[in-house]
Amino acid sequence: MLAPAMSVRPSLGHGVGLRLTHYDRILAPGADGSDGSLAGDLGVELVEVVTENFFGPGGTVPGGRPRAVLERVRAQVPVALHGVSLGVGSVDPPPEEYLRALRTVVDWIEPAIVSDHLCWGSVGGHYAHDLLPLPYREDAIAVAVDNVGRAQDALGRRILLENVSSYAAIGGGTMPEWEFLMEVARRADCLVLLDINNIVVNAKNHGFDALDYLAGVDGDRVWQFHLAGHTDRGAYKFDDHVGPVPDEVWSLYEAAVARFGEVASIVEWDQEVPPWEVLRAQAERARDLAAALVGGEA
Amino acid sequence: MSQRLRDEQALFWRAISWPTGVDDFLARTDDATREAFGRMVTGDARLPGPRRMTIYAESYFYRLADVLREQYRVLAWIIGPVRFHDLATDFVWQRPSHSPDVRRFGEALPDFLAGHPLEARHPGLGELARVERAIVTAIDRPDSARGPVERSALQAVEAERWPGLRLRLADHVEVLTTRRSYPLAFAAWRDDAPSPDPIPPVPEDGPFHVLVWRTRLEVFHRALVPAQAAALRALAAGRTFEAMCDAAVELDPSLDPATLVRWLGTWIDDGLFHALEA
């Protein structure tokens, strides 16, 4: 078993996903005449970034703008590195060069959290750059556990796996999604990033009760939540991270906090990205709702 | 390793990357593949299996097309949204991503354009894409371990040591040569301006040279006269200041030492050099 850096869920607070739109704000000279350091200006407790955006050429630490942005953010708040290309469910294991690049970023930025998705994304050396669905079967569990092990060995730490939104159930599944997720996490001894929005999306797309999902999750392994918006397209819900977190997601978030206690959260908003203040207000709502349910400072 | 899972992922990939869509893929494939697809993707009356797979197929294409559009904004503007959509379709289909880093997806587009019918009808688009690619990739090239060389460092070099002076270019500096000139394209491009129609022809009256570089956080590009390009290339090859001057004067015998020193001063102010060896 891998020795975790922290065996008890840390209190990392509530934050937002940093997107390119916000880089100028991070780098602009501060209103106090400083050189652009944030000086408390972020107003959130945690920031999540997409890991691969900070892979430098050839797996090096990047230079220029990405480096300046991430170092300035990291100087102010803990950072969660959120990958999109590990593809733990791909039958082809993650390339060594990818794992080395990931390790380089982790060693450089010393993130509070390293996460990716329980999905597959490549086959035969071709990358879809999407979070593709796995069948909820024993053979897929074995592949994912093996690949999570490779990643955790390469990093020397546990990672968090996120449940993904999906539009197609891959045939022959023998268990519900939540059981699949927890079985991978238990066997790989990894942690879970529970995306509340994805549960809401999948509940509609696959016809289950979102509360049943929560009931099937082992809270000890849940170290982070994702909150986001989606679009209801009638026959299905589409996970596009557009707009504010909808009420349905907030409601399930409250149920999750009531069940699992205080858990770090990140609000994702990827389309029509709003000003930082709007995003920050969403993180503040997540913090306030959690505080009302489990106590602590609002 | 599960052969079943491998087969499913290969079939899933074929279905979502088929250039004319999932329905067409199923119509054109053989019975055994259609049956395998039916076993793999479970649908219902509300959302049949092929429709569910189409959601992934559309996401696959539009995500990658957006990456291309973001990286080749001037090219996209010049050829317009319809032609760019067609170009992206061809590129996504023929050059699928081989890197986990999506930002590398478009790196082959300039070479791809060289053999594309669009380039045959509108020569020079590949060159334009190559300049844009250089600008995009300059943003995160590794920072130099040493800071940029300052004018004061140059001024401290004794006069007799100048001929043997070597200035090392930073990793983020690139000099490109094209057969056509694109400053007008870059100057005319605005995100919110309508694309030119028809695509304006650009005469092949080069060579032209473009300098792409980065200050700490911003990327710039500027046209160079041939002698400037030769001078910078001499320095990039590790040659001395004297050799740099020879390379420039060979192309333009009218150059005087004051002009060459002025160029050097401008490049130092631009932060092109990360080391000075006198």
Summarize the structure.
The complex is a heterodimer of chains A (298) and B (278). By secondary structure, chain A is α/β, with parallel strands linked by helices. Chain A has helices spanning 23-27, 64-76, 96-109, 138-155, 177-188, 196-206, 210-215, 247-260, 276-294, and strands at residues 14-17, 46-50, 79-82, 113-117, 120-123, 126-132, 160-162, 169-170, 191-195, 222-228, 231-232, 237-238, 264-268.
Record field, number of beta strands of chain B: 6
How many structural domains can be distinguished in the coordinates of chain B? 2
Average pLDDT of chain A, rounded to a whole number, is 92
> Domains counted in the coordinates of chain A: how many?
1
Low-confidence blocks of residues of chain A: 1-5, 31-40
Tell me the name of the CATH homologous superfamily of chain A: Divalent-metal-dependent TIM barrel enzymes
CATH class of chain A: Alpha Beta
Strand arrangement across the biggest beta sheet of chain B = 3-4-5
Give the fraction of residues assigned to helices of chain A. 25-40%
- Compute the number of strand runs of chain A: 13
Main beta-sheet annotation of chain A: 8 strands, parallel, barrel
What name does the CATH topology of chain A carry?
A: TIM Barrel
Write down the secondary-structure element order of chain A: EHEHEHEEEHEEHEHHEEEHEH
CATH-defined architecture of chain A: Alpha-Beta Barrel
Structural overview:
Chain A is α/β, with parallel strands linked by helices and 298 residues long. Chain A has one domain (14-294): Divalent-metal-dependent TIM barrel enzymes (TIM Barrel, Alpha-Beta Barrel). Helices cover 38% and strands 18% of the residues of chain A. Chain A contains 9 helices and 13 strands. Chain A has helices spanning 23-27, 64-76, 96-109, 138-155, 177-188, 196-206, 210-215, 247-260, 276-294, and strands spanning 14-17, 46-50, 79-82, 113-117, 120-123, 126-132, 160-162, 169-170, 191-195, 222-228, 231-232, 237-238, 264-268. In chain A, strands 1-2-3-4-7-9-10-13 form an 8-stranded parallel barrel, surrounded by 5 helices. In chain A, strands 5-6 form a two-stranded antiparallel sheet. Chain A has a two-stranded antiparallel ribbon with strand order 11-12. In chain A, strand 2, helix 2 (64-76) and strand 3 form a beta-alpha-beta unit. Chain A is globular, with a radius of gyration of 18 Å. Chain B is mainly alpha-helical. Chain B folds into 2 domains: 3-137, no CATH class; 144-277, no CATH class. In chain B, 53% of the residues lie in helices and 10% in strands. Chain B is built from 13 helices and 6 strands. Chain B has helices at 3-17, 22-28, 31-40, 49-71, 73-94, 109-114, 117-121, 125-137, 151-155, 183-188, 226-236, 241-251, 257-270, and strands at residues 41-42, 166-169, 174-178, 208-214, 219-224, 273-277. Chain B has a 3-stranded antiparallel sheet with strand order 3-4-5. Chain B has a two-stranded antiparallel sheet with strand order 2-6. In chain B, strand 4 and strand 5 form a beta hairpin. The interface between A and B is large, with 53 and 53 residues. Strand 8 (169-170) of chain A pairs antiparallel with strand 1 of chain B.
